[in-house]
Amino acid sequence: MFKMCVPIIALFLVSCGSEGGEEGLKEQLRKHPVGGSPAVMLKKSGIAESWLATIHGYLDNMSVCEDMIKPYNENPSLSDVEGTYYCQPVT
Questions:
Q1: Cα(32)–Cα(53) distance, rounded to whole angstroms?
Q2: Are 36 and 60 in contact (CB under 8 A)?
Q3: DSSP letters spanning 25-76
Q4: Which of 32, 26, 36 has its CA nearest to residue 64?
Q5: Contact 89, 40 (CB under 8 A)
Q6: Distance from CA of residue 41 to its chain's centroid?
Q7: 2, 10, 58, 76: most buried, per Cβ within 10 A?
Q8: At CB < 8 A and 24+ separation, what contacts does 72-78 make?
Q9: Can you tell me the distance from the alpha carbon of 49 to that of 43, in angstroms, rounded to the nearest whole number?
Q10: 59-70 burial, b if ≥16 CB within 10 A, otherwise e?
Q11: CB neighbours (10 Å) of residue 31?
């Protein structure tokens, strides 16, 4: 069993890239784009800034993200937590 786990763990560590967390995810999204445009982060500012979702795989990721957040910014009562939604390219 141990002999099988070592290669699997090694493969996992290599596939995670040089960095973990938010920077590691950004690095992977930049290196391996999906679709016709760069990935976009759907974020919310309020009590704290939060990265809620990543939009990728569409011809125009920014347009898709903006369409998703529009109702929430126009009618804040749709959200349980105060704040403003916005879209930011993964850089």
A1: 17
A2: yes
A3: HHHHHHHS--SSS--EEEEEEESS-EEEEEE-SSS-HHHHHHHHHHHHHH-G
A4: 36
A5: yes
A6: 5
A7: 58
A8: none
A9: 7
A10: eebbebbbebbe
A11: 8
Rg over CA atoms, the chain: 17
Helix (H) or strand (E) holding 85: strand 83-89
CB 46 within 8 A of CB 83: yes
Q: Are 16 and 23 in contact (CB under 8 A)?
A: no
Can you tell me whether residue 87 is helix, strand or coil? strand
